[in-house]
Design goal:
This protein is an alpha/beta fold. Helices cover 26% and strands 29% of the residues. The protein has one domain.
């Protein structure tokens, strides 16, 4: 996306992954980086690191999560990071978001429900979201309800099947 010239807003709460992302996008003035987690409420949140993060912090950064109960994270290995409320961020942009790609390791359902609650689904052109209902048992029912809600709203532009 950065190479296309699009304005890109990238959120990365994991400190090790953020450093790598900063290096990889340094030559793109159209990329705005936020060392923050996407959340439903602004403020500090705990980011739980992958069990094997000490072996390779960047590689295992993809498994870090805001959910302490996720099976591949350790509750005793967490960092405090800023949380940015996605609905407020989108409203404050003051223009539509053409493409939203979201993989926030289990917090997607709450964030998407908040966007729907606030009527912001029409501000998003296309959304590709990875959900974690297969790997996190307690997300199965909320994810099913979100799929039903999206169908009722005829919000087919928000896809929950990105992997």
């Amino acid at each position: 996306m950065a190479k296309s010239g699009a304005e890109v807003h990238a959120f990365e709460p994991n400190p090790d992954a953020f450093e790598e992302l900063s290096r990889a996008t340094a030559s793109y003035p159209n990329v705005k980086l936020y060392r923050a987690a996407v959340t439903t409420e602004p403020g500090e949140v705990k980011l739980y690191m992958h069990k094997r993060s000490k072996l390779d912090p960047v590689y295992y950064s993809t498994g870090s999560s805001l959910l302490a109960g996720k099976s591949n994270v350790r509750e005793d290995r967490a960092v405090t990071v800023e949380g940015i409320q996605l609905s407020r961020f989108i409203r404050d942009l003051g223009r539509p978001v053409k493409l939203l790609k979201m993989d926030i390791e289990g917090a997607e359902v709450d964030v998407l429900n908040q966007l729907l609650d606030e009527g912001l689904e029409s501000s998003i052109g296309q959304a590709f979201v990875e959900v974690h209902d297969r790997g996190i048992t307690e997300l199965a029912e909320p994810t099913r309800k979100l799929r039903e809600r999206l169908a009722e709203l005829e919000a087919s532009h928000i896809r929950l099947d990105w992997r």
